[in-house]
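quick one, 399 residues, struct below
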Amino acid sequence: MAVYLNALGLNCALGQGKAAVAKALFAGDASGMRAQGGWVAERALTVGAVPGELPALPALPGHPASRNNQLLLAAALEIESEIRAAIAQFGAGRIGVILGTSTSGIEEASQGIAQHQQHGELPASYDYAQQELTAPAAFLSDWLGLGGPSYVISTACTSGARALLSAQRLINLGLCDAVLCGGVDSLCRLTLNGFSALEAVSAEPCQPFSANRQGINIGEGAALFLMSKEALPGSEPISLLGGGASCDAHHISAPQPDGLGAQAAMEKALTAAGISAEQVDYLNLHGTATLHNDAMESHAVQAIFPNGVPCSSSKAMVGHTLGAAGALEAAFCWLTLSPYNPEHCLPPHLWDGQADPALPTLNLVNTGTQLSTKHPRRLMSNSFAFGGNNISLLLGDAP
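---
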């Protein structure tokens, strides 16, 4: 059953807050992607860092500081009034928290371990709990005083999308009246060095689906939705119509070349939403700019949309935000349908325009391409992860 995404708080390399992100997103502004050194030894990499200052974390016992929680808090503060109103309406015990992440506070923990290796002792600020994957959800629940189900999903690059599906399930099962759901991930030396070791990182700006693609850029960000079964007072909600999940388990890091697992996720999403592929107005591609992912996804998209569908990858503007990516790109679909997009633009596909002749041709949209204003409109967002983990979400205009 469809649920409502009543409010959204977010930040990424495009900016902090819905208005700033929407303005940069629809203009195709990739200025937030910048080359930085210090993440991987003897190598500068293009990364997508959240600009500006982040809010100071409140002093909560058992919650050591991390940039990951700061990103999450910034997103939550943007919609705090809506959250507080939901608490007043439903009660703290009826509101859950489900988030996706892959880093949590590993960057801060790694800094502490590095100091131990150099000086033989851990810094006073070191706390093992800051790197626990449950940390973001526990922090948000305790800060808000919530008593509903609270947990974190970590399925690599589908984590944030899976959090939305799990939140929808909690609501449809009657276990929650509202759920704070989404994803958060911060830039981290561990992940950057890991992807570099896999030879999957490009030092230059990434080029999704280009013949010249060389790999991903890593980014950071947070997207937090307030989901409920019914539209909340004063909101202008977008609906999560449904989603589909599959796991082809083809390889620990490489995608299934024929894209059958990705196809299955898209087919399940269409079935869950009760629509056909021809009724989808736009597809946000996973589009990592790696050789194998883009090849697999292009074949899967051609199979589901043989007549084509307007599509784009947003990773050239924000980087691959890993555990936050699925939620962040669902947020871009939310913005596309929202009043924050008065010109009805689609997120553009930024690349060098050099199509790979070995791949099926996709209908990649340019800056200024507009979404139909005829309701209802339906947008799909793909997320694929290590281990053959696949998620597709469908968002649409609220009825």
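The radius of gyration is 20 Å.
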